Amino acid sequence: MSADEDEHDISDPRPLTQQLIFNREGLPIEEAAHLRVRLANTLHAVGALDDAERLFSISLAIEDLVSARIRQNASPALSALRKQLRDAERAHGLKEGEFFMVSDQPDDIRELNAKWSAGRRALEAATLEEFGCGDLAALYRGNRAKYDELREIGRRKFFEPSGRH
Fold it and tell me: Which of 5, 22, 44, 74 could serve as 69's disulfide partner, Cβ 3.0–4.6 Å?
């Protein structure tokens, strides 16, 4: 066997799959997200990823993209909430990088955090739809506990020693 042949052993495609799905180095975030979602869907279609692995892989791409879009102020509503939250935190004496433990949050901070979380969840679901993952968007909106359970199962398969990867 030549050096080229043993470099890419595909008898178990999972390590290569993991590298391809999670490594987006050098690509713009939007392009990387599209490639990662297409790759996960393709690998799922040919049986190289199961349902939980597909969901986890796609959720990472979508979460990365949504975070980038929020940083780029692509959601005016979330940008406004972020400013309100920072202003409220400063009014309560917090400095940059400080935060309240959930159990210690004043009511106004708790309310703003709840609005922020709802807005982010709506943006994530809409982005799943935008990327042609209507089945995952429906699960995300309709049965978030099941979505989270499958995401965790997929994560474990990729990252925990007892998983298949």
Answer: 74
Q: What is the pLDDT of residues 129-155, one digit of tens each?
A: 999 999 999 999 999 999 999 999 999
- pLDDT band of 23, cuts 50, 70, 90: low
Three-class SS of the chain: CCHHHHHCCCCCCHHHHHHHHHCCCCCCHHHHHHHHHHHHHHHHHCCCCCHHHHHHHHHHHHHHHHHHHHHCCCCHHHHHHHHHHHHHHHHCCCCCCCCCCHHHCCHHHHHHHHHHHHHHHHHHHHHHHHCCCHHHHHHHHHCHHHHHHHHHHHHHHHHCCCCCC
